[in-house]
Structure formats: structure tokens, C-alpha cells
Amino acid sequence: MFKWLHRFGSAPFVYRLSGALAPWVGSACAVLLGVGLYLGLLVAPADYEQGESYRIIYVHVPAAILSMFVYMVMAISSAVFLIWRMKLADAVAQAAAPIGASFTFLALVTGSLWGKPMWGTWWIWDGRLTSELLLLFLYLGYIALRAAIEQPQSAARAAAVLAIVGVVNIPIIHYSVEWWSTLHQPATITKLKPSIHESMAVPLRFMIFGFLFLFGYVLLIRLRTGILQREARASWVAQLPEISRLTQSMEFQRAQLKTAQTETKHG
Amino acid sequence: MAEFFNMGGYAAYVWPSFGITLLVLCANVWFAKNQLKRVTRETAKRSAMTRAKKQSRTK
Fold first, then answer.
1. For residue A48, which residues of chain B lie inside 8 Å, CB to CB?
2. Which ipTM value was assigned to this complex?
3. How does pLDDT run across A103-145, given as a tens digit for each residue?
4. Whole domain around residue A207: which residue ranges?
5. Number of folded domains that form chain A
6. What are phi and psi of A47, to 5 degrees?
7. What's the gap in Å between the CA of B44 and the closest CA on chain A?
8. Which site among A92, A181, A242, B26 is 20 to 30 Å from A213 CA-CA?
9. Same domain for A262 and A151
């Protein structure tokens, strides 16, 4: 069992595994989003209060849920990295950050586009919107901190600490609509008895899982990039077919260039 | 059809929401793929260079 688990600490294994998984996760994501968009835009009925404008829920809620979920992935990976000094966990956290930032941005923009017709304003400084904006700054701060510190080891450690400290913001986002008065509607689906009809909830579930699989897909690709960057000097990397093929073609080009040069010299 | 695109008068809010979402999701995939391609090339270049150096040393 532990031997089996141990393989997830091995960079070559995770690099190959993510390469093998990525196309499947990507295809599943395309199907889920396709079905979700079709059901959400064409099949689900209009809302009795909000009319057709409520359809923004199908992009707003998945983006908002994932913005918090990705942050938890980033923070837990950071904790694993700090406690067990597992470099791969740091690679996961680093790969997750830009994806989470983009989801947070989407949640804010689509929320704004929903707020204007329903509340009459693009923005209010209430608990929910302010804490979600803080989440965006946490992601951007994490990315900027990594870029600002030159030594990769200390950059990784400092960023991990920031990610863990920022976790306090997650329950604040979730409970903000209950704690403080706001224009934002309370939770609809993340409670024991969801207050949404099945015809509207099914497309939403497709969209949420579609976003989740997109996160997985992009995370796998980014994780492979991160592993290559960290292990660039390792012999297993040089032996990878995709690397050695490129290396050989580069050497071949250089050899051709050399013979061409000597020919022009002698000719 | 026109009714669908009109979104009950909320077209100006609904379609930009879906548009920017699609854009951001596609950009996520595109940038990640592009970066992986670039880093793969850079890694191969580095490994070609170290191999060339090793060969010139043994000569």
C-alpha cells in the first residue's frame, strides 16, 4: 500500500501518469461543458423571478465554487510541501494558482454582469463580493511572490505560507451571505436541501463538473511543465521520447550546418 | 431563434457572461499547452547542449 502511494512522490511516474490522463480528462470536460451549455441555454426553463437573466448562474456558480475549491487544493498542496518537503506538492500548488485566479476573475465579472440587471449595480462593497475580490488578490499575490523571490526554494516556501494563511478567507466567502446583510442571494445548492428545481439543477451540475474537469485538465498540463522545469537536468528527462527526439533533430541540424560551413570554406 | 438570442431582454448581460467564460476557459487550455511545448523545447535544447559539451570534452 505504502509502496503504491510512494510512487506519487516520484517525478517520472507523475509526469507520465499526467500525460496519459490528460486527454481523457480533457475529453470528459468537453462533453460535460457541451451538455451543460445545451441544457442550460436551450432546455432549462426561465426563472419565475429573474426571467432569462438567471442563466448566468450556469457560468457564475461553477466559476465561484471552483475558485474556492482550487484555492483549497493549492493550500493543502502547500501544507504537504511544507510538512513533508514533497517537491511535487509544490508543483501542484504552483500549477493551480493561475487557474484559480482565472476562475475568481470569471466569478467576479459574471457576478457583476448578473448584478447590474438584478440589483441595479455592477458592484457593492459587501462581504461576499469583497472577500471574493480578496481571493483574487491572494492568488495574484501568490503568483507575484513566486516571481519576486529569485531563489526557487525560498520562493516556494514563502508562497506556501501565504497560501496557507489565506485559507481563513474561504469560510468568510462561504458564510458572508449569512453573516452580513447583502444584495447577494444566499446559498442555493451547497446546503442540505437545495432550493432549486431539478430542471435547473441538472444543467448546473453538468457545468460544475465541466469546470472541475477543466481544472483537472489544465492542472495536469501545467504540472507536467512544472516537473520538466524542476527536473531539467535529470537523466530520465533527457531519455523521454519527446525530449530525445527533439534533441536528436537539433543535433542533426547543427551537424548539417557544420558540413555546409566547411563546404563553403573549401569551395 | 431571435427570441433565443434576445434572452428575454437580458442579452446584453447573458451573452457577455457566457462569452467571457468561454474565452477564459479556452485561454487556460491554450496557455498551458503552449507553455508545455515551449518548456519541452527548452529542455531538449539544454540536453543537446550538455551532450555536445560532453562529446567535445571526450574528443
1. none
2. 0.91
3. 999 999 999 999 888 888 888 888 889 999 999 999 999 999 9
4. 2-232
5. 2
6. -80, 145
7. 5
8. A242
9. no
